Amino acid sequence: MYIRIGEQDFDIKEEYQFLSKADQPGAVVTFSGLVRPHGEHGALLAMELECYPGMAEASIAAIISEAEQQWPLKVVRVIHRIGRLQPGDNIVFVGVSASHRAAAFAAAEFIMDYLKTRAPFWKKEITADGEYWVEQKQKDEQAAGRWQAV
Prior knowledge:
Distance between the termini: 22 Å
Number of domains: 1
Number of helices: 4
CATH architecture: Alpha-Beta Complex
Radius of gyration: 16 Å
CATH class: Alpha Beta
Order of helices and strands: EHEEEHEEEHEEH
CATH topology: Aldehyde Oxidoreductase, domain 3
């Protein structure tokens, strides 16, 4: 399990190469999220992300542990950026390796769904008209809720 929270960007190719070489996987699934160019209040100039690092790391570790209990995973890497980011910048990376694709796909989606709802990150959209805190979306709660039946 690897978790990194910070301002530093990440290289998707390097992350994939690590996952594909570690512990002889049969499948690697990655997800990378980008800062969108538009938010709820119009075109974004930037987005600011904040968290309590120790609390966020513990929350992410618990999410990964849950995924490891549900699926036979080999390696999991989660990177979440904080600070001021521009549209198009990398914001989050979830990478999972497993022996089989079904476990890798499911675990990556599970981790991302719970990152959106359980990890204590706060996002502020910065537009030409002002700054706005982003509220949690009901669709994210619904996506995470489907894993309760798994």
